[in-house]
Specification:
The structure holds 2 protein chains of 2 kinds. In chain A, 78% of the residues lie in helices and 0% in strands. Chain A is an all-alpha fold. Chain A has 2 domains: 170 residues, no CATH class; 44 residues. The model of chain A has no long low-confidence stretch (mean pLDDT 92). In chain B, strands 1-2 form a two-stranded antiparallel ribbon. In chain B, α3 runs antiparallel to α4. The longest helix of chain B has 24 residues. In chain B, 44% of the residues are buried. The mean pLDDT of chain B is 92. The chains are: A mainly alpha, B mainly alpha. The interface between A and B is large, with 102 and 78 residues.
């Protein structure tokens, strides 16, 4: 059995299922914020990057314009470009395969792939493809399930879905806080965004914090 | 086309362009340490702002409601190193209880 179930495949599958299952929270959050089931599913199929998807839903849900939503989500998506830079020399693919590789270039596929480095470059490639495709399949299935579930609920507040969205953002944020200065930045940005909400148009207080991050990152 | 469709399709296009460009540009373009650092800090800033705005505002007004309980429970779950689904579910359940009771 273990001969057919390589450690790389095992790593990929366990990440795919646990991360994919969180798609249920996204599908529910999308519908709770006024997106249709079809739009929720398209967000997962086409954007396929959890933080960016939650950002679109969160910004539109709190009254922001589509442009602000696109800009906020895209700033969160820039890290996928850097993952692409890391993965390209390890994958060495062209044409349609590069298009497919790009679409599944996310935190998890890159993370599992780099975790296979000691097992050789073939394992790195397998880790990338298995995890990327696995998360894609499960994430999209669970998005549909969550969207349909939320649609059946009616008043989403009585099921706590209004609190599930900030909790999801917290869950995405927490593992990134590895130093004291990063925790300071997080708290400062959280306070700044809430304080600016009555003053600035909806959505802008969120994206404005990106400039705080840029200022801090360039100066240090 | 309404705001929901523009946001859905617009973000989808930009998300793919970002992913694809990473696979296609020379590595040295994006390997500058300052770019790497800013790239690590931007998600922290935006996600923190999204946590607080989604917890304490309704459109453009500040509100404190059942969501604060959900947030407190989510933070506690994180401190206890709970996995992602537990963080989200415990926040939803606690907020729902408060909403239905009061």
């Amino acid at each position: 059995m273990s001969k057919h179930f390589s450690p790389t495949l095992r790593d990929s599958l366990s990440v795919s299922i646990t991360v994919g299952a969180s798609g249920v929270a996204f599908g529910a959050a999308a519908v709770a914020n006024g997106f249709s089931v079809l739009q929720a599913c398209l967000l997962s199929l086409l954007i396929f990057s959890g933080a960016s998807q939650f950002a679109v839903v969160g910004v539109i849900g709190s009254g922001g314009s589509p442009i602000t939503a696109i800009a906020t989500a895209s700033l969160l998506g820039t890290r996928n470009a850097l993952y692409g830079v890391i993965m390209a020399p390890r994958l060495r693919v062209k044409g349609l395969k590069r298009v497919l590789a790009a679409q599944i270039t996310i935190d998890e596929s890159t993370g599992v792939a780099l975790g296979q480095e000691q097992r050789g470059n073939e394992a790195v490639q397998k880790g990338f493809w298995y995890t990327g495709i696995g998360v894609f399949v499960f994430w999209n299935l669970f998005t549909l399930a969550g969207a349909l579930g939320a649609q059946a609920m009616g008043d989403v507040r009585s099921f706590g879905l209004d609190a599930a969205v900030p909790a999801a953002f917290l869950g995405l944020l927490w593992p990134r806080l590895t130093s004291t200065s990063e925790r300071f930045l997080a708290i400062a940005c959280a306070i700044f965004a809430v304080a600016m909400t009555p003053i600035l148009p909806a959505g802008l207080p969120i994206i404005a914090t990106a400039f705080i991050a840029i200022a801090v990152g360039v100066r240090r | 086309m309404n705001a929901f469709w523009i946001a859905t399709l617009g973000t989808s296009v930009v998300a793919f362009v970002l992913k694809y460009s990473g696979h296609s540009v020379p590595e040295r373009w994006l390997s500058h340490p300052k770019i790497q650092r800013v790239n690590a800090l931007i998600p922290i800033a935006l996600l923190s702002a999204l946590v607080s705005v989604q917890s304490f505002t309704d459109k453009t007004t500040l509100v404190v409601d059942q969501r604060i309980v959900g947030l407190a429970v989510a933070i506690t779950a994180q401190l206890l190193k709970a996995p992602f689904p537990i963080v989200v579910i415990s926040a939803a359940v606690s907020s729902a209880i408060v909403y239905n009771l009061f």
